[in-house]
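Hey, I was hoping to borrow your eyes for a little while. I'm sending you its amino acid sequence along with the backbone structure tokens. Take your time with it, there's no hurry, and the full record follows here.
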Amino acid sequence: MPYHSPRWDNQWQSLYRAAIFGQNSASAKRLIQQAEAAIAMRQNELAQSAGPWADAEREGMEDALYALKALRTVQHGSSAA
């Protein structure tokens, strides 16, 4: 199911995009934390949901968490340099 599905929650996606595409490294850590928290909340909401749209959203959230972890690693590495 595409990301624009009306059954998907858009809050975690908006926070994820802000963290990934934000250019302000000073706020990157906060944006990453907000996105991760929103994804965790949505994962809890979907825990009892079934169907292809829920599976697709869960997969999207797992992909987003992976990307956020990579971004956190890059941010940590660049701030240590």
Q: What stands out?
A: The chain has one domain: 11-80. The helical segments are 11-21, 25-46, 52-80. The mean pLDDT is 81. The radius of gyration is 14 Å.
